[in-house]
Write a structure and sequence with these properties.
- With 71 residues, this protein is of the alpha+beta class.
- The protein has two helices and three strands; from the N terminus they run E-H-E-E-H.
- The protein has a three-stranded antiparallel β-sheet with strand order 1-3-2.
- The N and C termini lie far apart (27 Å).
Length: 71
């Protein structure tokens, strides 16, 4: 699952193949966007749980992208 703010929906779609997208409506939810660390408003997920190795790989790709942007 990826959590994103509304500014990073397009970027999130690049990291998951045909995900489900749902608005986060829980008022007490405090997740942050994986791209900018603002409050997440959407979650991208697969209906079937993905292996932890895939989730770790996606997070590593996002981190590398962030590092490349700051250079």
């Amino acid at each position: 699952m990826l959590l994103v703010c509304k500014c990073h929906i397009k970027e999130g779609l690049h990291f998951l193949q045909a995900p489900h997208i749902a608005a986060i409506k829980e008022k007490n939810f405090k997740g942050i966007c994986v791209f900018c660390e603002r409050l997440a408003e959407y979650k991208f997920f697969y209906s079937v749980p993905t292996p932890k190795s895939h989730r770790v790989k996606v997070k590593e790709m996002i981190q590398k992208q962030k590092e490349n942007l700051t250079r």
